[in-house]
Every structure is written in structure tokens, then in C-alpha cells.
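User: Here's a structure from my thesis project, written as C-alpha cells. My advisor, Dr. K., wants to see whether a designed sequence matches the one we expressed. Can you design one independently, without my sequence as a hint?
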């Protein structure tokens, strides 16, 4: 009947076409967030997903690096790393030449008023070089080493973040899509566990691939530069120092020497796998709930940004708090300078040692900066990644 009416009334065809064109134009102008059912059908390739993730990783690494430095310094101090003025070791070596050769300024900073004189040496009390908390770490680093040292290890963080997150988030998307498709058809009751499994597998793959850079970043952040006026070693020099360390505690062959570059990877996986499992199993339902509250499939790009950041912040905070003891163990294993001991130690032995030395407080050393770093970091990474994915998907749709 409709066809006959169009034949009898030709104006209906042109009007119908005009209305349809207007509706299509309005549809392309309106952003819509992909629903759960359409996640498997987006048109992004691995390269575009990696690009989205890398951009998120760069932004996050720069913003939260000071908290990462504070966390690492607190954990390294609890493990026995002594922080002091760079000249203190030089002064002790010069003491054999007599008091006339000991003239030095060992104040923590030129503005410190707590320094006293020991002979001809201006000396600060030990408390000036001991960290008491997150803000105290930041204050003393700025005062003693300079403001830019809060971003110590950022180059390693960027070198690590781009490939790691560039592997992690795209692989998570791919694994999640595969597992959701499989469980929907074959095991519907297992679908809620898909984010947990996909996140764990993706994080394990990313961690094993880029671990030596993570080792370099931890050591760069944990240790002070002892030579005044000399540029601190970068990623390559730090890793070369790990492999080429001299002394009796060096591994007996070159193969074990390079194996040291993966020292503590078990602790890293023991931390990152449950972190990812907790994070994604919390983030996915939270994100979908928030997006449904702000408009569902018709949510605006700002709503998507806010929903993803909020869900990422909550998930990252919970996951970081739960896995803090494993993070302490990871740091302790990565800063171990005795290669033979480092190769023999296990994560379980390290946790027992931490408990024996510091009890429950020792296991949660650096909890404040770790939680303060992980919440915003996950929120930034996930929201930036999803917004870029959203924009690229929209470009594919309209082209």
C-alpha cells in the first residue's frame, strides 16, 4: 500500500527521503557510547588501541610521578637504604687525613637552621635525612635535591608506560571481547569473571615484556645520586650498573648476570595480577552503572570522561590498598644489591622478612602515596583511553 501511495503521490517519496536524510545527519552529529553488546563490534585495530593507551600512559606517568618517588623512597628506607648528604661518605673517607682535610658542609640544605658544627664540619642531625611521610619525602627532596628530582625516573616511566600500557589495555580489550563472546554462547554464568581473567592475562604479558625498565625506574627513584654536580644515571646506565656490578656477590656467569635484570619479576606479577583482577572486576560494573545513570548509549563525551575517571579512581584505590604488601615486597627485591641473594629470594621469603622487621606497619609502608598515585593514575589512563577510542570509533562511523 505504501508503494502504491508513492506512485499516486510522488511528493511522498521526496519528502520521505528528505526526512530520512535529516535523521541520519542528526544521528551522526550525536555521540553515543558503545553498549556492552557493541563492544565486540568496534572498528579499532590493535595499532589504534595501542595509540590510545600510549597517550593515556604518558599523561599519567608525568602527573603522578612525584607520588611514585615518595612511595619508593619510603619503602626503600624501610628496607634499610640509608639516605644522607652526598658528601657524608666522602667526609668519612677523608677523616684519615686529619681535621684540616675535613672542612665540609654537610647541611641538608643551605637554609637548614638545625645544623651544628663537629670540628670544622657543618653537620645536620640524622632526622634531616630521614623520611617520615609522603609530604615529608616531597619537602625534603625539594629542599635537598631540587624540585625536578620529584620527577626522577620519569624517563624510565615513559619508556615503560608506553609499551606496557600499549600492550596491556589493547590486550585487555581483545581478551575481554573473546571471553565475553565465548562465555555468552557457552557459559553465561562465567561472564562476570571475564574482566578478572582478561585483566590478569593482559597484565602478565605486559609485565614480562617490559620488566627490566621497571627495575631501572625503581632503582632510579630509590637511590640518591652521591656525586654532587654529576648528572644522575639514566635507564641504560642504571641497567648496565645492575649487570656489571663488581664484587664477590656477582653471579658466576654472564647468563645469570643478565638474568638479574628480571630480579623480582615474580613479586611484580604477584602484585600486578591481583591488582588487575581487583581493578577490572570493580571497574567494569562501576563504569557501566555510571554510564547508564548519565545517559546510557546517548551519553555525551564529558559524561563518558567523568564516568570512566570515577570508576577508574575507585577501582585503582581499592586494588592499590589490597596489594600494598606485595608492592613493598617488589620494591625490596628490586633494590637488593647482592645478586646471589636477589636470585635466591622468593616473594614469600621477602614478605616473611618484611613482617619480621616491621610487622603490619612494614607490610603497608608507602600505602598513602601508593593509593594516592594509583587512584588518579587508573582514572586518567582509563578515561583518556576510552575517550580517544570513542573519538576514533566516531571517526570510523562517520567516514
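Assistant: Designed independently from the structure alone:
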Amino acid at each position: 500500500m505504501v508503494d502504491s501511495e508513492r506512485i499516486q503521490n510522488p511528493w511522498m517519496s521526496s519528502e520521505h527521503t528528505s526526512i530520512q536524510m535529516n535523521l541520519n545527519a542528526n544521528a551522526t552529529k550525536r555521540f553515543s557510547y558503545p553498549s556492552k553488546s557493541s563492544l565486540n563490534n568496534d572498528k579499532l585495530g590493535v595499532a589504534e588501541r595501542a595509540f590510545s593507551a600510549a597517550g593515556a600512559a604518558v599523561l599519567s606517568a608525568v602527573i603522578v610521578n612525584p607520588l611514585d618517588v615518595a612511595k619508593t623512597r619510603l619503602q626503600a628506607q624501610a628496607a634499610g637504604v640509608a639516605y644522607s648528604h652526598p658528601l657524608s661518605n666522602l667526609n668519612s673517607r677523608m677523616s684519615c687525613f686529619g681535621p684540616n682535610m675535613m672542612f665540609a658542609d654537610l647541611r641538608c640544605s643551605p637554609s637548614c637552621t638545625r645544623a651544628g658544627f663537629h670540628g670544622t664540619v657543618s653537620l645536620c642531625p640524622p632526622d634531616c635525612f630521614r623520611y617520615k611521610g609522603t609530604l615529608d619525602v616531597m619537602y625534603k627532596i625539594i629542599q635537598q635535591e631540587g624540585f625536578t628530582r620529584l620527577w626522577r625516573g620519569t624517563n624510565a616511566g615513559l619508556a615503560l608506560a608506553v609499551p606496557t600500557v600499549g600492550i596491556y589495555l589493547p590486550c585487555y580489550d581483545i581478551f575481554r571481547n573473546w571471553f565475553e563472546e565465548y562465555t555468552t554462547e557457552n557459559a553465561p554464568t562465567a561472564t562476570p569473571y571475564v574482566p578478572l581473567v582478561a585483566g590478569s592475562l593482559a597484565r602478565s604479558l605486559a609485565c614480562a615484556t617490559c620488566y627490566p625498565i621497571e627495575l631501572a625506574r625503581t632503582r632510579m627513584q630509590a637511590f640518591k645520586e652521591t656525586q654532587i654536580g654529576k648528572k644522575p644515571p639514566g635507564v641504560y646506565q642504571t641497567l648496565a650498573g645492575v649487570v656489571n656490578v663488581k664484587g664477590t656477590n656477582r653471579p658466576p656467569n654472564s647468563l645469570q648476570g643478565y638474568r638479574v635484570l628480571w630480579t623480582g619479576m615474580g613479586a611484580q606479577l604477584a602484585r600486578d595480577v591481583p591488582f588487575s583482577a581487583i581493578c577490572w572486576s570493580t571497574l567494569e560494573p562501576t563504569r557501566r552503572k555510571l554510564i547508564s545513570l548519565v545517559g546510557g548509549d546517548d551519553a555525551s563525551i564529558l559524561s563518558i570522561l567523568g564516568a570512566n575517571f570515577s570508576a577508574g579512581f575507585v577501582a585503582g584505590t581499592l586494588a592499590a590498598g589490597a596489594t600494598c604488601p606485595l608492592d613493598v615486597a617488589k620494591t625490596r627485591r628490586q633494590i637488593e644489591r647482592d645478586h646471589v641473594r636477589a636470585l635466591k629470594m622468593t616473594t614469600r621469603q621477602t614478605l616473611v622478612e618484611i613482617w619480621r622487621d616491621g610487622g603490619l606497619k612494614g607490610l603497608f609502608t608507602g600505602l598513602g602515596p601508593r593509593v594516592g598515585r594509583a587512584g588518579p593514575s587508573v582514572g586518567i589512563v582509563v578515561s583518556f583511553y576510552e575517550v580517544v577510542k570513542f573519538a576514533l570509533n566516531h571517526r570510523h562511523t562517520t567516514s
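When you compare it with your expressed construct, this may help: The first helix runs from residue 2 to 8.
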